[in-house]
Amino acid sequence: MSTNNRNSFSSSFGFVLAAAGSAVGLGNIWRFPYLAAKDGGGLFLVVYLILAVTFGFALLTTEVAIGRKTKQSPLTAYKTLHGGWGWLGKIACIIPMMIMPYYCVIGGWVMKYAVAFITGNGIAAAGDGYFTDFITAPVAPVVFTFIFMFLSCFIVFRGVKKGIEALSKILMPVLVVLIVGIAVFSLTMTHADETGSVRTGMDGLKIFLIPNLEGLTFSKFMVVLMDAMGQLFYSLSVAMGIMIAYGSYVRDDDKLVKSINRIEIFDTAVAIIAGVMIIPTVFMFMGQEGLDSSGPGLVFVAIPKIFQQMGVAGNIIGAVFFMMVFFAALTSAISILEAVVSSFIDEFKISRKSAVVFEGIIAFVLAVLVCLGYNALYFEAPLPNGSKAQILDIMDYVSNNILMPVVSIGTCILIGWVMKPKTIIEEVTKNGEIFSRKYLYIFMIKFMAPLLLVVLFLKSLGILDL
Which of 56, 65, 195, 410 has CB atoms 3.0–4.6 Å from 52's, for a disulfide? Predict the structure, then answer.
């Protein structure tokens, strides 16, 4: 198979930044801090870190190596690796196709708030009902979704070097500076509520870093374990086809072990700093009840109210914050889109332009349906995990809670038992690298990772009640 004309990253550093840009997305900004606050602060952090260097490392290494070994996208990589496993590639391609529409809708929400704060309307954005009024509007969410999706498509259209890598080299350093800057600022603040009770940013940091073992049972620990493992899918961008696509652009002479280690460190560090940025700030201004806000409620409802209490400075800080969230969303969106575009290019032998236009149209049509799910097509459907869902929630549940564990379990079986771990180990070490975690990798991919994934899958389906 000729790969002479295939795109590639210009350097391992470019690959690391692009992969980290994919990993550092909305999941790190709002989901990681929320789960940390919910699951005992430092307890969640410790469990997450252990899983990151074991479970997450095994899945990340496997996907990147599959991509470079086959020089194929997720749709075609699995059947190139083993003729009977092409079905797994189809599922791996469906996942980003399902995520892209609703991710762009949320990206549009972020743009709306960024515009509000940049134009000095932060006080209005913090008002009760502002978020609900916006997402239930018939036109505005669609317009912002279109703009966000157009930007994503334009970057991917420009290709790997001129689009994805070039943007990542600019946005990732800016993103890190913004996150670190806001995190440091949050730790220096003090707030007194109506009762005269004073809370500081350092008080919130203690909640985040110090494990809370009060009332901990085996059942509660398993919930923390499953939450941390589920977060790793978001944090490392595994099981979405993204790392296979990006791995296929890595040059054969690049040292994979070093690159994978850097991605792990970079992403984990940013996730922790995001926690330092969010948790102390929310706890300081809103107490423990503020930390109980999950998902969009944390970023689009709780955080704007905090900026409102900061007075004039709140508009400026709010503008910086939402620009940071926008950059994080954009770098992740282009990686999700690239997983689909590269699949179309490899499977149907079409140009990048045609693949981007084709997927862009599909994604936008589905994104409009997601927007309408909050007004004209509004309904509430019960999910197996007990929550009530609209169109966005259903797409998120199917992609993240069902399809992603299926792809990861299938990948573990294929590599661990059908083709054997040496398939990946040989690819990772083909430039003479020392794979210091080789035996850990073998144990994880054959035994521990599939076991944990099956438990997570059964819990997601509501079959296993932890």
Answer: 56
